[in-house]
Structures are given as structure tokens and as C-alpha cells.
Amino acid sequence: MSRLVLLRHGESEWNRANLFTGWVDVDLSSRGQDEAGEAGRLMASAGLAPDVAFTSVLTRAIRTAELALAAMGRSWVPVVRHWRLNERHYGALQGLDKKQTAEQHGLDQVKVWRRSYDVPPPALAASSDMNPAGDARYAAVPRDQLPLTECLADVVARFVPYWHDGICPELHAGREVLVVAHGNSLRALIKHLEEIPDDAIAGLEVPTGTPRVYELDPADPCRVLNAEWLGDPADLAARAEAVAKQAG
User: Fold this and answer.
1) From the CA atom positions of the chain, what is the Rg in Å?
2) pLDDT single digits (tens) 19-45
3) What is the CATH number that goes with domain 3-243?
4) CA-CA-CA-CA torsion for 55, 136, 134, 85, nearest 10 degrees?
5) Secondary structure class of 108 (helix, strand, coil)
6) Could you give the CA distance from residue 67 to residue 65 in angstroms, rounded to a whole number?
7) Catalytic positions, written as ranges
8) Residue 112 confidence (pLDDT) above 90
9) CA pair distance 179, 224, nearest whole angstrom
């Protein structure tokens, strides 16, 4: 039976500071490094042994994959990095304090920007230093594919084709796959895998540093038979609640 593991990166420096991050490249906090190592130990104790890993091109996901694989004694596993696994682009909200943004615009508006399926935040100015068009890691990406803001539907549209073309072939080859990405890019993939309706996805929280394990159909390795979070239920609930409360 094929297995797929999804892992949100550990706490980043901007998670700790409660800032909207999006495509801004931010490293892990010391707590995030601990979460990444603990996720690796948790996966190893559950008998997981990924043959290949996929990450975004953002440092917090790359470092989480490195630390988790090292904790599993599998630093040799090949890692594929692709921009389509990046976090949702938060547009002009990037770099802003989440609680202060809620105080300025109202909790309801910020909830729409953070959790609605098809309403993006205000777009980033093309002249901004945060425009990904000026970042060397996206030099080969067509300019019209680089966002200045995104809603979750946009993330589904860019990630799901890569799921089919880049990740599914590994599962069909019988390999165990680890995907290390971000809260919203993983929400997009979970929505697709678990067929969550558009109007229900707002209630899904993806805790940092917490593996989600999928058992897949041997006849169709991209079809889910079962899914579960690894870890202590009380700790999982606390991490999910912390994510939900970030905007105050």
C-alpha cells in the first residue's frame, strides 16, 4: 500500500511574530526547528520511511524537510523543490501584523482574506520589493504565472496540476512520498485529496510541524483510503487553535 505524508513547516520567525508571510522567504524559529525534528522522530516511530520528498522553494519548508529527514536518519532521500508548493501569496498583507490588521479592517474582513475560498487579499504593488518577479528563484517561471495576490482557489489551480504531473508518478511507482509545504498550499492539496467542499474548507486548520498520513488505494495510488494526524490529540488541538487565533 502506498503512503503519502503531508507536513507543514515548523513555526517560522514570522509565525512567531504573528505577521502575514506568504511568499516572503523567512527561516524557522528555534521552536520551528524543534517541531521539524520532532515531526521526523514521530514519523520514524510510526514506521514511515519516505523514498522521496517534495518541498516549496521557501526556506522554512526546505529546512523543515532537512531537519525531519535527518531525525529519521534519511538525509540521503532525494528532495524535489518546486514553486507550485509555495504558500498562498498574501498580496499587500505580506509583512503586516495579523492582529493589527484585524483591528484596522475588522475581524470579519480579515477572516474573509485568510479563510475564504475565492476572495484574495488586496494585490501587492508591482513595484514592491516583494514582487516575486525580481527573485532569482523564479527566473524561469513565466511572469504571468507569478502572483501579486492569491485566494485559496488560485492555490488549488497551481498546485493540483503539479500533484498529478509531479507527485502522483512517484506514488504510482510504489514510492512513499513526503510533501513539506505550507498551511494554505497543504489546505489546497487536502481539499483536493479529501474532496472537501468549497464552503467547508474555511474550517480546516493545518498545525505547524504535524504530519498527516494518507493510506492510498493500491489500485489507484492517488486515491485516499484513510487519513490521520500523527501526535498527541491534545497537542494537535492546541496547535490548530493557535493557528486559528492568529488574527485575534
Assistant:
1) 17
2) 999 999 999 999 999 999 999 999 999
3) 3.40.50.1240
4) -10
5) helix
6) 6
7) 9, 87
8) yes
9) 15
Nearest to 179 by CA among 141, 224, 214, 221: 214
Q: Which residues contact 192 (CB under 8 A, 6 or more apart)?
A: 156, 159, 160, 163
Average pLDDT estimate for 206-227? 94
Distance between CA atoms of residues 155 and 164, nearest Å: 14
Which amino acid makes up residue 71?
A
Residues recorded for the chain? 248
Cell numbers linked to 198: 468549497
Lookup: cell for 26: 523567512
pTM of the model: 0.94
Rounded Cα distance, 77 and 63, in Å: 14
pLDDT given for residue 20 in this prediction: 97
Query: pLDDT tens, 46-89?
Result: 999 999 999 999 999 999 999 999 999 999 999 999 999 999 99
Q: Which set of grid coordinates corresponds to residue 59?
A: 526556506
Inter-residue contact 120 to 91 (CB < 8 Å): yes
Q: Which residues of 127-165 are buried (b: 16+ CB within 10 A; e: fewer)?
A: ebebbbeebeebeeeeeeebbbbbbbbbbbebbbebbee
At residue 145, what is the residue type?
A: Q
For 55-84, b/e burial (b = at least 16 CB within 10 A) is bbbbebbbbbbbbbbebbebeebebebebb
**Confidence tier at 233 by pLDDT (50, 70, 90):** confident
